[in-house]
Amino acid sequence: MDLGGGMSLKGIPNSVEVGFLTLLESLNLCKVGQYLKCPKWPIWVVGSESHYTVVFALNPNVQEENELEERESKIRRAFDAQDQSGGGGFITVEGFQQVLRDTDINFPSDKLEDLCNAGIIVWSEFWQALLQLDKRAGGMKDPTGLMGKKQFTIYHFNGIAKSVLNGNANIGGSSPIQRPRLCKLNVTVPPRWTQDEYLADVVSASTSGSKDDSVLSLAPPVQTSQHAPLVDCIRTRWPRAVCSWAGDVPSIV
């Protein structure tokens, strides 16, 4: 990011062993780079308004990307390299032309004109256009439909004592105790569809009661989506992630 006066702000220049995620990115107040989001080990320090907690996975495969995910990462890096807004998610037409050259993307002339019409290119609009552009033209549209839903488990640890019910809350005499909290989260990252298509699919799956063995053999059924500020942090690493957990809401404060 060019700060003017010959001063520029840069991210972490090399890969790291432990990563970092922050709630501030979900609020669009800063941007964490790919090296911190994709560390050597599946461990992330999570920053909130008040203190730090930790997210980790026992299986390092949560870091692996399929072919289309790697393609998306490459395109996003090229886009971010031209983004002088400090992570605002938009670039100039000149920067956009450089992104297309760097990533071998070939839009039809009418779509290219539409994207450039406003004088700036917003990432969300660019991404939607890529979803409709065939892979052979450098886009993300996959006619096979094998765009790779991922399901995995991560854990969140908050070392600051939180109130946890001692035993069953329905039994008389239960009293709250104070202890650090470890929470197990089931995470589902949908395929590279548009958000509307994914939400429609989740609703349809939850109401149909499908027993499709081909789905069940790959992963457990989709969990009901739950939300907390921690989920916003997780989505800065895995966009569109759906999270679920048992018991108290995981707290990052």
UniProtKB/TrEMBL annotation:
InterPro entries, A to Z: EF-hand-dom_pair, MINDY-3/4_CD, MINY3/4
Catalytic activity as recorded in UniProt: Thiol-dependent hydrolysis of ester, thioester, amide, peptide and isopeptide bonds formed by the C-terminal Gly of ubiquitin (a 76-residue protein attached to proteins as an intracellular targeting signal)
GO molecular function: cysteine-type deubiquitinase activity; K48-linked deubiquitinase activity
GO biological process: protein K48-linked deubiquitination; proteolysis
Domain of life: Eukaryota
Pfam families: MINDY-3_4_CD (PF13898)
Enzyme Commission numbers on file: 3.4.19.12
Keywords for the protein's UniProt record, in alphabetical order: Ubl conjugation pathway
SMART domains the UniProt entry points to: DUF4205
Deubiquitinating enzyme MINDY-3/4 conserved domain ranges (all copies): 1-125
Physiological role: Hydrolase that can remove 'Lys-48'-linked conjugated ubiquitin from proteins.
Family the UniProt entry places it in: Belongs to the MINDY deubiquitinase family. FAM188 subfamily.
Name of protein: ubiquitinyl hydrolase 1
